[in-house]
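Q: My labmate handed me this sequence with no annotations at all. I'd like to see what the chain might look like in three dimensions before we decide whether it's worth expressing. Could you predict it?
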Amino acid sequence: MNEHAKRRLFALGALAIGGAALFWVSAGQMGEDLVYYWSPTELLEHGASAEGATVRIMGMVEPGSTEWSPSDQRLAFRITDGAQTIAVLGQGAPPQMFRDGIGVVVEGELGSDGVFHSDTVIVKHNNEYKPPAEGEMPEEVYKALMKDDPEAAQRASLAAQEGS
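A: Here is what I predict for the chain of 164 residues:
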């Protein structure tokens, strides 16, 4: 075998080893970093096998189900996809736009008690920004948004005071 053939064989071997190593690293670690999006129905269908797995659930906050305790930063509510409902318990202040009937994504784990223990609550909303009309005060717009949920308005008002 001449020198040119040896170099070519060495290069092909190095590429094969590098490609195999890259595949092993990416495929081996990828499963640990995936977080799946499920509906409440899909989560409940998985039953006991879903317990302890980190997942994201998307759905709507069931009207009348929200319980917020500012003293211990505890948020409890139910999320529904229209077919099934699941209780959610979270720690920390809810997002300012959080209210009954709004779309949310919660990340956490299903406990053995059947309650979804959430680490993160994300409010789904459109990205369309509309500034107040000329002469209209931002507080008026805000009050109009929160008129259906006085508790959300109170939480947001407290958060705004803390922020200033």
